[in-house]
From TrEMBL:
It comes from Steroidobacter gossypii. It holds the Pfam family FAD_binding_4. This is FAD-binding oxidoreductase. Keywords: FAD, Flavoprotein. SUPFAM superfamilies: FAD-binding/transporter-associated domain-like, FAD-linked oxidases, C-terminal domain. InterPro entries: FAD-bd_oxidored_4_C, FAD-bd_PCMH, FAD-bd_PCMH-like_sf, FAD-bd_PCMH_sub1, FAD-bd_PCMH_sub2, FAD-linked_Oxase-like_C, FAD-oxidored/transferase_4, Oxid_FAD_bind_N.
């Protein structure tokens, strides 16, 4: 028996007969990333069902110097969970670790395992009249561990923060198999370095997150969802500021949508209609949640939006009158990536600047991209309240994917250089994975990179944790 066969046999023994996949058809979904940018190879996907099993797996792989690629729902945008092409790495799925270990409504906390689907975490909180506010288009399939490892953003960051802000403690298995138990659901704990924050956003390169102590919130008693037409992003920024002041920061969602994105959705996605009568160059999907009574909140927002219209800040607005209509408004925003796929290849950017500078950034970035691809269709939308834009360019109508994608290096350089001039980020919420490794080296401060490499060396000296990602 070769050494490799010996290791594989031991790993299978650790997880038991239900804890691994090794048949080609079963392995297939783990070999390709969500955007189909990468295709890797592996002979084994491990599916442990306890932290102890993860610990034993890591100890064995560390001793054998075999790379381990953790995977959650595989909904990431940067190839962070795809194994390398040479088939030398093992994939580690946490999908069977999906228990809610405990929930404490009085402390507003929950301890959940990494394999819980995000929607299950939200539902467990709702069952005790609490809110877990992380909200994403892929919440029906993405997993808590993946959300943590990529420090996910989504559509409620404006009010509740990113994943990092929603977590009090973590349980992590280190690359050598030791278990770092930091699961205390405490809001205050100033006892040295904050180790939790090392693993959040590390994309599985420092250890395997197996469970998290999550923060919960009160569920708003009333929610108003509005679809608003505006002439330009500058006015949208002013509206956000107005509503934040008016509601005492109760705006949880403020998403910018260009006309072209709405048209794509209306054309390609079923059960969608334009909520407004005329056509507007830009739209905002906004949501406000408060503890006050439904009709009171709705009436107050209606009056405020009418005043904004009177002053020329907005062009039109519709408030959702039922849960069905609210869902349809959300559908108009959440299906933009899907709708965009219908018109061929796109070159995507996930950038951030300050919210106040976002309108000017859009103008300059459009100018730069149009100089490279005059017919490219710019579909730039996103989380305006967070200064985060998905600045995507779809291939020109009638053009072919391949020749358009050849422009990617030039377009990426133009957009990211502009971002650097703004002091912004080249990856606001999607992470680095494999896709942006070189961009990270180019744009991250050299001292920050040195510190990151030192941390990686200290925790994973054999380089077995998600090799080839981030750094
Ligand atoms: C979104 O906000 O829709 C997602 O982050 C995906 C995207 O980049 O389009
Ligand atoms: Zn997004």
């Amino acid at each position: 028996m070769s050494t490799e066969t010996g290791l594989m046999a031991e790993l299978r023994r650790v997880v038991g007969p239900r804890g691994f996949l090794d048949q080609a058809t079963d392995l297939e979904p783990y070999l390709v990333d969500h955007r189909k940018l990468y295709r890797g190879a592996t002979s084994l996907v491990l599916r442990p069902d306890s932290t102890e099993q993860v610990s034993a797996i890591m100890r064995l792989c560390n001793e054998a110097r075999v790379g381990v690629v953790p995977v959650g729902g595989n909904t990431g945008y940067c190839g962070g969970a795809t194994p390398s092409e040479d088939g030398s790495q093992i994939v580690l799925s946490l999908a069977r670790m999906r228990r809610i270990r405990s929930i404490d409504p009085l402390n507003y906390t929950m301890i959940a395992e990494a394999g819980c689907v995000l929607a299950e975490v939200q539902a467990a909180a709702a069952a005790v009249d609490r809110l877990f506010p992380m909200s994403l288009g892929s919440e029906g399939s993405c997993q808590l561990g993946g959300n943590l490892s990529t420090n996910a953003g989504g559509t409620a960051v404006l009010r509740y923060g990113m994943m990092r802000d929603l977590i009090l403690g973590l349980e992590v298995v280190l690359p050598d198999g030791r278990i770092l138990d930091g699961l205390k659901p405490l809001r205050k704990d100033n006892t040295g370095y904050d180790l939790r924050d090392l693993f959040i956003g590390a994309e599985g390169t420092l250890g395997v997150i197996t469970a998290a102590a999550c923060k919960l919130f009160s569920r708003p008693a009333a929610t108003v969802t509005a679809f608003v037409g505006v002439t330009d992003p500058q006015r949208a920024v002013a509206l956000l500021s107005r509503l934040r002041t008016f509601t005492g920061d109760a705006v949880s969602t403020f998403e910018l949508i260009p006309r072209i994105a709405l048209e794509l959705v209306l054309q390609h996605i079923g059960d969608t209609t334009d909520p407004l009568d005329g056509a507007h160059d830009w739209y905002v999907l906004l949501e406000i949640g408060m503890g006050r009574h439904d009709e009171q909140l709705r009436g107050a927002i209606e009056v405020e939006l009418a005043a904004a219209m009177e002053e020329g800040q907005i062009s039109d607005a519709a408030l959702a009158t039922s849960e069905t209509q609210r869902e349809m408004f959300w559908r108009l925003r959440e299906t933009i990536p899907e709708a965009q796929r219908h018109i061929g290849a796109s070159i995507k950017h996930d950038v951030s600047v300050t919210t106040s500078e976002l309108p000017q950034f859009i103008i300059e970035a459009c100018r730069l991209v149009q100089a490279i691809s005059p017919q490219g269709r710019i579909v730039c939308y996103g989380h305006l309240g967070d200064g985060n834009l998905h600045f995507n360019i779809s291939r020109p109508a009638g053009a072919d994917d391949e020749s358009f994608l050849r422009l990617a290096p030039n377009i990426n350089r133009a957009v990211h250089d502009l971002i650097a001039r703004y002091g912004g980020s080249i990856s606001a919420e999607h992470g680095i994975g494999r896709l942006k490794r070189e961009e990270l080296v180019r744009y991250k401060h050299p001292v920050a990179l040195e510190v990151m490499r030192a941390i990686k060396q200290a925790l994973d000296p054999n380089g077995i944790m998600n090799p080839g990602k981030v750094l």
